């Protein structure tokens, strides 16, 4: 299963508002339409981490699939609402794909 982690900055007190925005967005049907199976949000000392898991049958890159929905009205609405609470982690982040964390190690228990 694919996972993508997006990282931004967020004031800790904004977490309930950000969660509410995502809760409302997740009811639109767009996440399922583009292959998202699960979303988990984390906060840590001013950082916002957004973990997205794909459906097991998704065969295209999950981050690219999310990015391809950027012209969908539901995507635009959630992006604009979140802009009030989230800021890029780095000044060189120009868009969603620039906020994607890079996986550099993975381990799984062996099945015996």
UniProtKB/TrEMBL annotation:
Top-rank taxon: Bacteria
Pfam families: Cyclase_polyket
SUPFAM superfamilies: Dimeric alpha+beta barrel
GO biological process: polyketide biosynthetic process
InterPro entries named among the record's database cross-references: Dimeric_a/b-barrel, Polyketide_synth_cyclase, Polyketide_synth_cyclase_sf
Protein name listed in UniProt: Polyketide synthesis cyclase
Organism phylogeny: Bacteria, Bacillati, Actinomycetota, Actinomycetes, Kitasatosporales
């Amino acid at each position: 299963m694919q996972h993508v982690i997006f990282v931004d900055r967020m004031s800790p007190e904004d977490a309930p508002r950000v969660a509410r925005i995502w809760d409302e967005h997740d009811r639109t049907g767009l996440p399922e339409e583009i292959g998202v199976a699960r979303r988990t949000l984390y906060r840590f000392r001013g950082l916002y981490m957004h973990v997205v898991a794909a459906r097991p049958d998704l065969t295209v890159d999950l981050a690219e699939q999310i990015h391809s929905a950027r012209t969908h009205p539901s995507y635009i609405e959630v992006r604009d609402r979140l802009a009030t609470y989230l800021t890029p982690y780095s000044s060189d982040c120009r868009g969603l794909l620039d906020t994607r964390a890079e996986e550099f190690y993975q381990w799984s228990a062996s099945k015996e």
